[in-house]
Model the fold of this input.
Amino acid sequence: MKDKVFYGILTAVCVVGVISVIALVAYTYALYSDCSIISYIANRG
Amino acid sequence: MKLIKQISLILFVTAMFAAFDIAVYNIFTKRYINDTSPEMQAKSIELSKYLPFDENSGIVKTDSAAKLSGDLPVIDGAAALYPVFSGFVNAVYPSDSVSFDGENFAPDSALQFHNTRGAYAAIVDGTADVVICAAPSKEQLEYAEQNGVELELVPIGREAFVFIVNKNNPVDDLTVEQVRGIYSGDIEKWSEVGGENRYIDALQRNEGSGSQTAMLSFMDGIPMKRSLTGLFGSAIGFSFRYYVEGIVENSDVKMLSLNGVYPSPENIANESYPLVSSFYAVYRKGDDNPNITALIDWILSDEGQGIVEKSGYAPLK
Done:
C-alpha cells in the first residue's frame, strides 16, 4: 500500500473515531440531563 | 511485510476507538438510559393517566355533593401528589373547569401542573390559588417574602420520605445516623454498612424539589457531598414512598427500612417509620376567595381524606 493511501485511511479512521467519541459523550450528557434518580439507580448494578 | 504492518496499525487504531466507546457506553451511558415514556421524562408524571373527568383515569373517583362553583381556585402541585389533587378536582370541580390538550393544561384550566418548584412560584406569582406540595424550601419562602406574599400551609396528609437502592444491593436496612453518614461523606463504602465492598454514590435532586427540601431538613444542617469515587460504585437516592411504589413502579429499585422499620402504609399511619412528614394545601394568606376555604375544608373532611388514603397516602388521622 502506498504511504499516501495508508495515511489517508489512518486519518479517516481517526476522524471517524473522534467523531464517535464526541457523539457518545453528547448522547450521554443528553441522557444525564433527563435521567431520574429512580431510573439511574435501576440501571446501576 | 509493510502491507501487513500498515493493515495491523489501521485495525489496532480502529479497535482502540471501538473499545473506548464500548467502555464509555457500559460505564456511563447505559446508567442514564431512562426507559419511561417521554411524558414521564419531561414532567416526572404521566398527566394523561391521572386526568379528572376521564373514565379511564387512574385517580380515585368520588362523587361528592360538595360542588364548587363561581370563582374556582386554580390548583397546582407536586408530581408525587398530582393523582391526589386531580382526584380532588374530579370530586368537587365542575367538569368544564379543566381542559387538557394531550400534553398540557390550557391556561384557563382550573387544574394546572408545574411540579413543586413551579407550583410554589405560581402561588407567589398569583397564577395558582392552592398548591398541594411538601413543605417549601428556604428559597421558596424567601421568594414569597420578597414578593410580599405570606403562605398559609394546611397539613392535609402524611407520607414517608424513603431511601432507595438497586434491587441487587444486599443492604435492606440503614439507621438514620448511617444515612446521614453516607450523605455527609463520612461513610464512603457499602461494606461499612453491611454491604458489598463498593463505593457509595449518594445522589441528590434538584434544588427546590420537594424531596430535596425534605432531604435538607433530614440532614439538619449537615453539609452533603457526592464523592467522585461513587461514580464507580452503587447508588442510593431518596424520594417519597408513593412516588416510588405507586407512580414510577420500577421493579429494579427497592426501598430501605430505616432503623429496622419498612415504609409500609401501616408503619406510616402508626408513625413507627422514622421519617413521616406532612404534605400541605398551600394558599396565599389573606386571599378572600371563599372557595379556597371551602376546598380546604372539604379536603379535611372524611370524603377528602378518603381520597388521600385511597390514592395511597396516609390521611391525617
Summary: The mean pLDDT of chain B is 92. DSSP finds eleven helices and nine strands in chain B. The interface with chain A takes residues 2-3, 6-7, 9-10, 13-14, 16-17, 20-21, 24-25, 28-36, 41-42, 44, 164-168, 201, 203, 205, 234-239, 244, 248, 250, 252-253 of chain B (CB under 8 Å). Strands of chain B lie at 75-77, 130-133, 151-166, 173-174, 200-202, 234-240, 253-255, 257-258, 276-284.
